[in-house]
């Protein structure tokens, strides 16, 4: 696969364009589904980028929308072809959160709030292994290893020499106090977190327990932003059996405002780094 082709992002862009064409035609998803003798849910999945789009799907939809400019049709057909190629993560087999990985791979910036654990992009291998084994106790060792490998590969966005991912992380103190694996492992993890926080494109802040109630008590979430203005920001909320992706401007705005409150209530960068270092020393006792 060409390095500049991200199938997940191509599906999103293609879906957005198909939705735009439908709306220009003044048709509902239900009306389109009736014309093509398919389910309304299929049209919705095509438009939100959660389903692979075949060139035949694009051709049929362009016919329904009466797209006369062949250049537009050809462009959409090429996007459909590109969207069916495989990203690097597909070499690891069935990954439950592959849609998220595709988005993260193409994102320019990522804002994360995590109340329970250190975020995956800042985890050591040993911490990741212990965390996955504890969180998914019925997972086979081979599957745990596969998940860890994927997590380590994802971290290449942080260490990339060109255009690294801009990462902003707000952690609850609980994520630092929860002993994953053992104390020695935790000390190593927190020292690594301090080290990574010194990268110019990585920001880490901590909300200590004594801050009391704050907007992040509802749980973990991430906000992804992309370099292309045509790609709308996405709020990602991880679930046990399914994940939630919010793309409506109003939803993204609400989570963005909540994140700003979290950043304001957290310790500043230097205070957070010292706070993490102090807890790391406690694990050495």
UniProtKB/TrEMBL annotation:
<dbReference type="Pfam" id="PF19054">
    <property type="entry name" value="DUF5753"/>
</dbReference>
<dbReference type="InterPro" id="IPR043917">
    <property type="entry name" value="DUF5753"/>
</dbReference>
<dbReference type="Pfam" id="PF13560">
    <property type="entry name" value="HTH_31"/>
</dbReference>
<dbReference type="InterPro" id="IPR001387">
    <property type="entry name" value="Cro/C1-type_HTH"/>
</dbReference>
<feature type="domain" description="HTH cro/C1-type">
    <location>
        <begin position="18"/>
        <end position="72"/>
    </location>
</feature>
<protein>
    <submittedName>
        <fullName>Helix-turn-helix domain-containing protein</fullName>
    </submittedName>
</protein>
<dbReference type="InterPro" id="IPR010982">
    <property type="entry name" value="Lambda_DNA-bd_dom_sf"/>
</dbReference>
